[in-house]
Specification:
single chain, alpha+beta, DNA primase DNAg catalytic core, N-terminal domain, Dna Topoisomerase Vi A Subunit, Chain: A, domain 2, 3 domains, four-stranded antiparallel sheet, 40% helix
Length: 381
């Protein structure tokens, strides 16, 4: 038999047996139809279409095992789950049991659309705001306190310290309660887009969009999503320091988070390969940047071409800036980008700083200035 569509058990309880299912943050409750219940002591899990009662759950489970002839797995918790079919075919106090034929007919009605299939996902969004009304500042504030262990584990697997980034207010995590307010956010949540990275306007004052980074390995979906309708700028604009020696340009949010996790101050994560210094806002931003601009470019043909394009633009727009391309390589492993290098290298910050010192030595002729910068590099970048 095919797997039941999510939410079938809610349709069964509400449409077939006239019970009112109440939504909570993480689950649903309902008055148990199998005993005299005044406190809604039963819980419903619509994602997997199971039911449990905190009062009579064990008896229901044992009864269904006898009727169905199936041995159900013992429970390690106080919850004793029964499937939607058991809910349908067990006799209750004010509920008649469905026969096998009636159960099959019920499923056919769902499949044919004769019973409106208001699944738990649709119910969540009956009274929510439209997706194009989403305010990124509001979403960012709502996610202020939530910690996501799985997201932190994912970042750790990429050698990125998520705790440091969270404390610095550079990332936040999507939780189910916030996601349920908007259909698009619930879609993101269900597909593991749980790391939030803000994008500010080019003045660094207001959040204009949020990137949602995926933490699972589902290759059928993109690695990241943005809020629909929001402006896409670049990562790190709000955190730029005027008194820093250099700015580091990288491609994308993963490399951006990698360098910020290592403690580098001025890092701009260019959101895509078209994110060049070609608009008035980006040209104005360039003028505010420190003298040295290092660009960590990807070790592939598009990455090299992108670097060359940025280099030419900066040279034409502001020849007072010193643009230095930085290509991180490993003798033993194939490295595509900054994050690959950090994963493959012991003490990556030390190795990156050594490369920066060599490049600065080549770029500056004045020995006194050169030595002062190299000797104080850690505090300057």
């Amino acid at each position: 038999m095919k797997k039941l569509p999510p939410g079938t058990i809610i349709i069964l309880l509400e449409k077939k047996f006239g019970l009112k299912v109440k939504k909570h943050v993480k689950t649903y409750s309902v008055k148990c139809p199998f005993h005299d219940d005044n406190k809604a002591s039963a819980l419903v899990f619509p994602e997997v279409n199971v039911f449990t009662c905190l009062v009579c759950g064990q008896k229901l489970k044992e009864k269904w095992a006898k009727i169905s002839g199936k041995s159900l797995k013992p429970s390690n918790t106080r919850y004793h789950y029964i499937p939607a079919k058991a809910v349908a075919m067990l006799e209750g106090i004010n509920k008649k049991a469905l026969t096998e034929e009636e159960w099959k007919l019920f499923l056919k009605e769902i499949q044919s659309g004769n019973i409106k299939q208001e699944t738990y996902e649709n119910q969540n969004f009956k009274e929510t705001k439209k997706d194009n009304d989403i305010n990124p500042e509001e979403i960012w504030k709502l996610c202020k306190e939530h910690i996501c262990t799985n997201s932190l584990k994912y970042l750790k697997s990429r050698n990125i310290n998520g705790n440091i980034l969270f404390k610095k207010n550079l990332i936040r995590f999507l939780n189910k309660e916030v996601a349920a307010k908007y259909k698009i956010l619930y879609y993101y949540y269900k597909n593991d887009y749980k790391i939030l990275i803000p994008l500010y306007d080019y003045n660094g004052k207001n959040i204009v969009n949020i990137q949602f980074r995926k933490i699972s390995k589902n290759n059928k979906l993109p690695k990241a999503k943005f809020l629909p309708g929001g402006k896409v700028t670049d990562f790190g604009i709000e955190d730029l320091k005027q008194n820093s020696l250099a700015t580091f340009l990288v491609e994308g949010s993963t490399d951006y988070l990698s360098l910020k996790s290592l403690g580098y101050k001025n890092v701009i994560g260019l959101t895509n390969i078209n994110s060049t210094f070609s608009t008035p806002e980006k040209i104005n931003l360039l003028k505010k940047l420190p003298k040295f601009i290092f660009m960590f470019y990807d070790n592939d043909e598009p990455g090299i071409e992108f670097m060359k394009q940025i280099k030419n633009q900066i040279k034409n727009l502001d020849n007072s800036k010193i643009f230095i391309p930085l290509n991180l390589l490993s003798k033993t492993k194939k490295i595509k980008d900054v994050n690959d290098f950090i994963i493959a290298t012991e003490n990556p910050k030390n190795k990156i700083n050594q490369s920066i010192k060599k490049l600065i030595s080549l770029a500056i002729n004045n020995k006194e200035i050169k030595d002062r910068i190299i000797n104080n590099l850690d505090s300057l970048i």
